[in-house]
Specification:
This protein has one domain. The longest helix is centred in the middle third of the chain and has 141 residues. It has 163 residues and is mostly helical. The chain starts with a helix and ends with a helix. The chain contains 2 helices and no strands. Pfam families: ATP-synt_B (PF00430).
């Protein structure tokens, strides 16, 4: 049995030495590159996660900025519309007031022109009546008229008015 036991012990030592050599070979040729590859992959994953977090923060900041700009644009548009409406109302009132002033001026001018035309017509009528009176007086003085002559004189005078 001792021989069997030493066989087992020798085999065990042989297997342990082979295992140790195998471990050294695996560590030297496989474990190092695998560990390096795993470390590089771990670093890449960490960088990707950090980059994704940064990108998400940037996206949130941009979204907030765009929302603020949109709100500002809406307020500005409302302000512009309000200002335009106020300006349009003021311009409309100014135009209406100016039109009323112009119409009032035109009415006043028309009244003045009508009064002047009336005065001119009366003056002209007075002048014509005076001229007619002088003509009639001249003719009456130049000749003593009987009824037939007076009728002829009036007829001639009326014919003279038509010319």
């Amino acid at each position: 049995m001792a021989a069997e036991s030493s066989l087992y012990l020798g085999d065990t030592l042989y297997y342990l030495v082979l295992f140790a050599i195998l471990l050294l070979l695996v560590k030297h040729y496989a474990w190092g590159p695998v560990t390096d590859m795993m470390e590089k992959r771990r670093q890449q994953v960490i960088e990707d996660i950090d980059k994704a977090a940064d990108d998400r923060k940037k996206a949130e900041v941009l979204a907030n900025e765009r929302e603020a700009q949109l709100k500002s644009s809406r307020q500005e548009a409302t302000k512009i519309l309000s200002t335009a409406k106020t300006n349009a109302e003021a311009a409309g009132k100014d135009i209406l007031n100016q039109a009323n002033l112009d119409a009032q001026g035109i009415r006043q001018k028309a009244k003045e022109d009508a009064a002047q035309a009336k005065t001119d017509a009366l003056n002209e009528a007075q002048a014509q009546v005076a001229d007619l009176s002088v003509l009639i007086a001249e003719k009456v003085i130049a000749k003593n008229l009987n009824a037939a002559d007076q009728k002829d004189l009036v007829d001639q005078f009326i014919k003279g008015l038509d010319k």
